Amino acid sequence: MAHAITSLRLVAVVPAAWAFSRPDAVPAWLLVALMTVAIASDLLDGRVARRRGSASPRGMLFDHTTDCLFVTSGLAGAALAGLLPAVLPVLVVVAFSQYALDSYFLHRQRQLRMSVLGRWNGIGYFVPLVMVAIAALGVPALSELARQLVRPCAVLLVLTTTASIADRAVAPLQTNASVG
Q1: Checking CA distances to 17, which of 37, 61, 65, 175 falls within 20 to 30 Å?
Q2: Helices (H), the chain
């Protein structure tokens, strides 16, 4: 059941890329629906897996990979529309790849090894997409505020993602220095 919920987000990857690349040309309800499905499925899938006793490292990998694909596609679409820096979706892919490789190969764990900053970034990647969806609604003051905050929020995520990548890169060096 949890995988089916996660799959809703996976199915939304291509529509998200298209819709966020053309936020002025698609109905606002579509952007809002995509974000509602993405956030609701992300909040529910883990809870359902834990309640049913089906939580597993593979399920966690599927969930996080789906998150990465969804936010990267939406952010890439928004970058194509000129709404945020194009480097952000690239950094998301680099950070997620580093997260997976670091967890499975460097630390030889059987599941993903989270960091606090990485977790907050993962949540934060949804924020600019929510702002684009809110901006598309056309509610005068709210839409304008959301429109004005998209780029600064994305720039902040560029900085925190870069910091997260750097932190994961130097962590093994610090561990080796303390052992030797």
Answers
A1: 61
A2: 2-11, 13-21, 28-51, 57-80, 87-101, 116-124, 126-137, 140-179
Do the Cβ atoms of 73 and 16 come closer than 8 Å? yes
Question: What is the C-alpha separation between 14 and 10, in angstroms, rounded?
Answer: 8
Q: Highest-confidence range of 111-115, 158-162, 167-171, by mean pLDDT?
A: 158-162
Kindly state the DSSP code that residue 109 receives in the 8-state scheme: -
In angstroms, rounded to a whole number, what is the distance separating the alpha carbons of residues 71 and 73?
5
What is the token pair recorded at 103? 């967890």
pLDDT digits (tens, 9 = 90+) for 62-73: 998 999 999 999
**Which numeric CATH code is attached to 2-171?**
1.20.120.1760
53: left (phi over 0), alpha (psi -120 to 50) or beta: left
What is the domain partition of the chain in residue ranges? Answer: 2-171
Question: What's this model's pTM, rounded to 2 decimal places?
Answer: 0.89
Reading phi first (left if > 0) and then psi (alpha if -120 to 50, else beta), residue 27 is in: beta
Length of the chain: 180
Is 9 buried (19+), middle (13-18) or exposed (0-12) by CB count in 10 A? buried
